[in-house]
Amino acid sequence: MLDVRRLRLLRDLDRLGTIAAVAKAHSYTPSAVSQQLAVLEREAGVRLLERTGRRVELTSAGAVLVRQAERVLSALEEADAALATVRGEVSGPLRIGAFPTAVRTILPTALVTLGREYPALELMVTELDPVEVPEALRERRLDVALVNDFDLLPVAPDDTLDAVELLDETVFLAVPADDATGDEPVARYRHSPWIAGSPGTACHAVTLQLCRAAGFSPVVRHHADDFDAVLALVAAGLGVSLVPRLAASRPPSGVALLPLELRRRTRIAYRRGAQDHPAVNAFTTAIRAATVEHVRR
């Protein structure tokens, strides 16, 4: 019988590319990962890995087993969800990941609702950038999370995760109020300093992509990941920046918000197979109600 934990290591080797990366993801030593994969090969009765120089690659049999491993892991999530449904009570830990804007706006209301309706749930929130969410879900550091992307820079589907839509919002160009114009707003500020998220974040990448589409490369003078800080910098006349509607409900004086055709899309993500878990369903219901209420206000 194949061991599920070893199947997960093989799946992660295919995803991460090196034994060292798999070891880091699971807090193992590289030697321990190699030993576990060797045991998996003996269990499978066929060679799963081959070395090419200093790299390890999957054989055709290893690639087949990885595809089957995804089905097995998804089936285990479904089994866990089914058992939780049979138990009836919505209880136990629920590890939630969310990006900073959501933590500040829609998430608190949802958490209050969950705490009131399901007192046996142990709610734990981690603030993180959406690009970090898939790995955190796969590594079971999170159970459910809010992620987002932009229509100009969509995120590729992930075979290990599922997601449902939550919010589609306008993105604004925040500019100093005394310098606001609605004529081709992005190109209008080609010579202005820009404020963008930290390199590696979706906000940073979409800023570069949007400006390039308008025919120029922006001079990013400041990096900030908190939109309150971004708007304060804009109000001080230190640059212009992209700001989604969720973060722009109360802009400070001195800031004008110019609507763009750019859209940001927020989704609720979880491991494939977990969609019917009572705790995931409870969170989905609560965060949707909180989002509707926030947008209405």
From TrEMBL:
It comes from the Bacteria. It holds the Pfam family LysR_substrate. InterPro entries: LysR_HTH_N, LysR_subst-bd, WH-like_DNA-bd_sf, WH_DNA-bd_sf. GO terms for cellular component: protein-DNA complex. One of its GO terms (molecular function) is DNA binding. Keywords: DNA-binding, Transcription, Transcription regulation. Residues 2-59 form the HTH lysR-type domain. Belongs to the LysR transcriptional regulatory family. This is DNA-binding transcriptional LysR family regulator. The lineage of its organism: Bacteria, Bacillati, Actinomycetota, Actinomycetes, Propionibacteriales.
